[in-house]
Specification:
There is one protein chain. The chain is an alpha/beta fold. It folds into 2 domains: about 25-120, D-Maltodextrin-Binding Protein, domain 2 (3-Layer(aba) Sandwich); about 130-170, no CATH class. It is about 30% helix and about 25% strand. It is built from 6 helices and 8 strands. Strands 4-3-5-2-6 form a 5-stranded mixed β-sheet, sandwiched between helices. The chain has a 3-stranded antiparallel β-sheet with strand order 7-1-8, with helices on one face. Strand 3, helix 2 (about 60-75) and strand 4 form a beta-alpha-beta unit.
Length: about 180
């Protein structure tokens, strides 16, 4: 893909039939093993990060696309995936036991740091990450329990001190039961 000049993507027809209830936004961190040379540095430049070997999400996934975009916005090429990981635990394990760099949800990165498994290179990425959301079909009248469930999920996320998306700005339907 590094030689691609242009990409075009059509709309997703299925997306037009779905309603979205945003719940919370997830912060992500760039991590490496505590034994990695980057771990001892106060600041690692984007140009250095792009030259590192990476354990990245699978090509085409939303997080991979967002990571590619963050690098481009910072004036460098996309990172090189030495290993593609299909899950966060797999990424955590690969990064903590290798010389690769990766990206993880901030709570998982902080947990790894607290246990001496990971070092955080960039504690919080400034990206336009889509919120974790609940989806349901628009054309089917949803019972009140569906919206009640959405409210419970949002309340749980709030109790976990996650960055809950404001219901007013997200246009979340009322949760009256």
């Amino acid at each position: 893909m590094r030689n691609t000049d242009c990409l075009a993507r059509g709309g997703n027809a299925a997306a037009k039939t779905l309603a979205v209830i945003p719940v919370y936004t997830e912060a992500f961190s760039i991590v490496c093993s505590p034994r990695h040379p980057f771990a001892q540095r106060r600041r690692v430049r984007w140009a250095e990060l792009v030259d590192a070997g990476w354990a990245l999400p699978v090509q085409g996934t939303p997080l991979r696309q967002l990571m590619d975009g963050i690098f481009v916005r910072n004036g460098v090429l996309r990172p090189r995936a030495v290993v593609e990981c299909s899950g966060y635990e797999q990424t955590r394990h690969v990064v903590s036991h290798s010389a690769l760099v990766g990206v993880l949800p901030r709570p998982l990165a902080l947990h790894g740091k607290a246990h001496g498994e990971l070092a955080l290179l960039r504690a919080k990425l400034d990206g336009e990450f889509a919120p974790i959301s609940l989806l349901y079909r628009k054309e089917v009248d949803q019972p009140p329990l569906v919206l009640g469930f959405a409210g419970i999920v949002r309340d749980l996320a709030r109790s976990m001190r996650l960055a809950v998306v404001d219901a007013q700005t997200a246009s979340m339907p009322s949760r009256r039961l």
